[in-house]
Amino acid sequence: MAMKILLINKFLYLKGGDATCALSTGELLRRKGHEVIFWGMDSPFNMEHSYRDYFISNVDYNARNGIGKQIRMSFNLLYSFEAKQKIAKLLKDIGKPDIVHLHNFSHQISPSVLHIFKKYNSPVVMTMHDYKLVCASYAMLAKDKICEDCKDGRYYQCFLNSCVKNSGTKSLLNTVEMYLHHRILHIYDLIDIFISPSRFLKNKVKEMGFKGKVLYLPHFLNLEAYHPRYDWEENSIVYFGRLSREKGLFTLIEAMRRLPDITLKIIGEGSLRKALGNRVKAEGINNVEFLGYKTGEELRNEIRKSMVVVVPSEWYENLPFAIMEPFALGKSVIGARIGGIPELVKDSETGFTFESGNSNDLRSKIVHLANNAEKIAEMGQNARSFAEKELNAEKYYEKLIKIYNMAIEKHQQA
Length: 414
Known about the structure:
Layout: E1 4-8, H1 16-31, E2 35-39, H2 67-78, H3 81-94, E3 99-102, H4 113-119, E4 124-127, E5 141-142, E6 145-146, H5 156-161, H6 168-184, E7 193-196, H7 199-207, E8 214-216, E9 236-240, H8 249-255, E10 263-267, H9 273-282, E11 288-292, H10 296-305, E12 308-311, H11 321-328, E13 333-336, E14 351-354, H12 359-370, H13 373-390, H14 393-413
Parallel strand pairs: 1-2, 1-3, 3-4, 4-7, 7-8, 9-10, 9-12, 10-11, 12-13, 13-14
Antiparallel strand pairs: 5-6
Helix pairs in contact: 3-4, 8-12, 11-13
C-alpha cells in the first residue's frame, strides 16, 4: 500500500553521508510508488523540491555572524520555533503523513518539530548517523581522542572537557541542549523506532545508556550506477572524504613514507587541507597528491584506476559510504579496525584492517597488498559481491517498509 512519507534532513543536497542516505531513500520510495515530501533547510545547493517554501532559513554555524545572530542561532539550536512553525504549516497544508522519517536534524532544525508530529499523532522513525543521542558533541571525541565520558547521561562532561571545537562556550551550549532534550523535555521519547546503519552504533548507544527501540538496517547503493573494475592502471591508493582530524590522515601520510613506488591520492576538502600539505612538503613526502573535491563519475574514475581505497579513521565510524562505494566499484578497502568499519572490511576477503592510529601497521598492509596483485582482484570481486548481496536497494526497501509498519503499529498501541 502506498504511503505518504515526510522525509527530513537538515541538508537536502549531497553534503555528507546523512544527506546521501536521505535523498537516495526518498528517491527509492518514490520509485516504489510512495508519495515522498522532503523537508529541511533552505540552501542554494538544494535540488528542486516541491515544498521548499516551507523550508527553514539557512543556518551556518561556521560562518562569521554578529552577536545578535549568534544568540538567535544558539536559542534555535536548543529549540527552534521557526522550524516548529514551518513544519506545522506544512502539515496543515498537506495533511497528516503516514510516517515521518527523520535523518540528521539536530542543531539547525532541532527536535522542536517532534511536538508537531505528536499533535498530528504521526508515527516517527529516525535513522541515526552519529552518536548525538548519547554524546553532546556527536562524535564521541575529546581532544581528538575517543571519549565515552557522557555515558549514562553525564552530559556535563562535554563542558568539563571542552569537547565541542575546544570551546567552553560551545561545549556549554551543547551540554544544556542535552539536558533540555533528554532530562527535561524527554523529547526523543516521541520517536517510535530508531534505525542504526551499523551494529556497532546500535550496540554503542545502548552501552552508553540509550533506552529507545533501535533496529539495525544498513544503508544501500543504487548498484546499477557503479560499474566495477577489478584491475588497475596505476600503483595508487585513494582516500576520499572530509579532510578533518578524526579521519586519520596524518597517520595515512606517515604510512606513505618509504613507499616510493605507490602514490596516495587524497580527494576532498576540509579544515586540515593546509596542515596536511605543509606536513607533506616539510617532510619531503613526494608520493602524496591532493586532488581537491571530486564527485560523481570523476571520483569513481579515480577509484577505478587505483589498487585499493584506504579509510584510516580514528573515531567510531558508523557505516561509511567511503567503503560502500569502492566495494560497488570492485575495489577492496584497507580500513582502520574501529567503529563499524570491520563490519564491512573482512580481513583477506574484502580488504584488510589495521590498528587505528598505527602507521606502521597501515604501511605493512599497503605493502602486503601491493606485493600480491592477484589478491587485489580477488578481494575486489568479493567486495562487489558483498555489495550486491548486502547493500542492494531491494533488500533495504523491504526491511524499511517492515520498520515503517512496526512504527505505525507501535504508535497505535501507545
